[in-house]
Amino acid sequence: MERNRSDEKSRRKPSGAAVQRADLTEALYRAFFEEWAERGFGALSLERVAARAGAGKAAIYRRFPSRLAFAEAAISALGVRIALPEAEHPTLEEDIFALLLRARAVLRHPLVRRILPDLHAEAARSHEMRAINDRVAEARRKQAEQVLERAVLRDELPARIDRELALDLLLAPLYWRMVVRGVTPSRDDLALQTQVITAGLKAANRHHASL
To answer: Which residues, as ranges, make up the DNA-binding region of this protein (predicted)?
Structure first.
């Protein structure tokens, strides 16, 4: 009987410090992004990240074997939130406007605006960071692809549309303005941008149909 009790204890789930608490993981992610935004990835210190999160460095290494693995996990978690499904709107133009509004909300966050240029710089030097950077872009493109799919189903765009070009056209102008130039567009600016993008996509559609 004693052995059975011992076996039962050994099968119990770990508790306390042995459990990777979700709230602590979130705090570590926030601290990681704050440290990255403040100092750049090259000078990022995991000791300072742990201190910002009110944890010990061991809490990081129980979750992530390296700084790069930490970056990948944090950005992947952020990417999932960014890629939440968009509500459908009646027209392509309304869908594009809603997409740009959501993208603006993400890109105007002060941490995002400071981290993204540094992420691009690191990606130019590191294959591993290039892969992480590509995953950030993929999260946005998946959301934009839903807009194209709905437009095809409504016969606003052809099924054979050049999707890579269309996806570039949907988000690249806003990204250039906000991340490269550091300018936050107003709703009126987004409305005008939406009209131009919609017209461009439909013009490409007409050109494609005439070939």
So the answer is: 45-64
